[in-house]
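Priority: medium. Attachment 1 of 2:
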């Protein structure tokens, strides 16, 4: 039997008999002789009309159709027709005049929420209010508690297709630049980043933790002479507070590479990768971005063909000139980062930029101090719409300095001794960076919460589904 995808149904199919499979999104009885079923297949929907007519469709069949539960899987055989008026509530502008319909698998009669309700935009709510109509709002917890249903909205379908593209473009770009795709362990003896945000566990009687990043092992792969490596993998952070941009588990896109002369070689990869990423997403994911925009409107990201680089000192200067009080050797708060994002946009016309030469005191122990001024470091953060998506740096490749720096940052040397030892047989100068996948998708699409771009988000209160 030949199956037709709902998304391909168009006027050219007029009078053809087609067989489609999808979910019964809505079922509406008009009379005992007529019912409408909107069938959804992925992101696309088509209106199917069931009309009782002698010898073709019985009244009994119309009754059967009205008894199908929403979200059940159905097979529909019917003839394509083109109505005179535009069809509201379906993506395809043709109808299917049903000849046969089978329920392949039933959904429960009561849904936690309707897919159309979960797919509404603010504009829909405003319009309904003007029309004196009452629409149902589906809150985030209800959605996340029933994530499988929530995934069925066109917006969510599109978000995770964009996310898939980001990983694909990332790996293709790096492979073409001679990087080797590695996998590092997630069960490790000591914390990777330091600090308290680490999940501790028992490893057959030994204390262990879940990797806070592939940091130590990606650097060890460089000591093993791979030259340039990258990884796509889970990153665990025992965050203990709620924000719109922190998860307890996220997907890290990590890069590490030998440096010949300067950490700008690493920033050059960031620049070229992200310009390629944004260009490709805008070109290849047009449909997905439009679908996301229909529910959550956003302006396309403003970026330059060559990424803007500012030093931390220049950033601090811009903030001070605009009247913001900042510590020139401290970290930037979330709010100050946002403010700087606005200032950069006004002055340089970009919402994507690199801020480098951070104060050493606010960076992890493995960060290389600046050669000309030890108060600063060969490090950088990268921002989209005023929020951080990347941290990166040149690393300390000299074992004695690395030990001193780790001790100074309060790290128990015993737990990272194999890491430090790997620098004792000659290590090349190197650097790299880590990107948070969920943040990139969230900020590229100007979404307001990282839980929207994580398929099954993990936060301090959520471990299921
Ligand atoms: P990274 O870990 O790469 O630095 P980040 O976005 O968590 O990424 P931080 O440097 O840790 O950035 O923090 C930047 C700012 O974000 C902090 O000054 C603080 O205001 C805020 N912040 C960080 N972590 C949390 C958290 N768990 N809860 C609330 N706010 C946080
Ligand atoms: P950092 O800790 O800055 O650096 O993490 C890198 C990037 O990961 C993302 N990120 C997060 N995303 C979601 N939830 C979180 N809790 C979270 N924390 C961080 C951000 C951040 O920019 N080893 C270094 C990278 C390196 O230097 O190579 C590191 O992990 O987008």
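Attachment 2 of 2:
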């Amino acid at each position: 039997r030949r199956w037709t995808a709902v998304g391909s149904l168009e006027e050219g199919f007029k009078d053809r008999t087609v067989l489609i499979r999808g979910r019964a999104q809505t079922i509406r009885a008009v009379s005992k002789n007529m019912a409408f079923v909107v069938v959804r297949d992925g992101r696309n929907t088509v209106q199917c009309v069931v009309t009782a007519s002698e010898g073709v469709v019985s009244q009994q069949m119309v009754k059967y159709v009205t008894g199908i539960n929403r979200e059940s899987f159905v097979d529909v055989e019917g003839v394509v027709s083109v109505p005179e008026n535009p069809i509201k509530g379906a993506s395809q502008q043709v109808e299917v005049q049903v000849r046969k319909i089978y329920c392949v698998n039933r959904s429960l009669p009561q849904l936690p929420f309707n897919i159309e309700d979960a797919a509404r935009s603010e504009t829909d709510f405003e319009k309904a209010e003007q029309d004196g109509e009452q629409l149902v709002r589906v809150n985030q917890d209800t959605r996340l508690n029933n994530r499988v249903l929530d995934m069925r909205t066109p917006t969510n379908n599109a978000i995770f297709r964009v996310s898939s593209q980001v990983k694909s473009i990332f790996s293709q770009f790096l492979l073409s630049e001679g990087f080797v795709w590695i996998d590092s362990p997630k069960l490790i003896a000591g914390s990777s980043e330091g600090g308290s945000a680490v999940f501790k566990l028992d490893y057959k009687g030994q204390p262990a933790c879940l990797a806070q990043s592939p940091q130590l092992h990606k650097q060890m792969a460089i000591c093993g002479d791979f030259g340039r490596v990258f990884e796509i993998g889970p990153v665990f952070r025992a965050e203990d507070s709620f924000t719109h941009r922190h998860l307890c588990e996220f997907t890290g896109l990590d890069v590490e590479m030998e440096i010949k002369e300067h950490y700008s070689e690493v920033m050059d990869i960031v620049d070229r990768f992200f310009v390629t990423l944004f260009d490709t997403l805008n070109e290849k994911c047009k449909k997905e971005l439009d679908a996301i925009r229909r529910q959550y409107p956003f302006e396309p990201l403003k970026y330059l063909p060559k990424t803007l680089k500012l030093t931390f000192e220049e950033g601090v200067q811009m903030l001070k000139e605009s009247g913001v009080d900042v510590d020139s050797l401290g970290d930037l708060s979330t709010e100050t980062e946002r403010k700087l994002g606005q200032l950069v946009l006004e002055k340089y016309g970009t919402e994507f930029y690199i801020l480098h030469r951070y104060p050493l005191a606010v960076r992890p122990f493995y960060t290389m101090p600046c050669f000309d001024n030890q108060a600063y470091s060969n490090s950088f953060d990268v921002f989209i719409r005023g929020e951080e998506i990347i941290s990166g740096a040149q690393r300390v490749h000299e074992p004695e300095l690395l030990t001193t720096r780790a001790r100074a940052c309060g790290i128990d040397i015993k737990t990272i001794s194999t890491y430090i030892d790997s620098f004792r047989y000659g290590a090349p100068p190197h650097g790299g960076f880590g990107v948070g996948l969920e943040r990139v998708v969230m900020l590229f699409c100007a979404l307001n919460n990282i839980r929207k771009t994580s398929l099954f988000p993990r936060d301090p209160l959520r471990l299921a589904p």
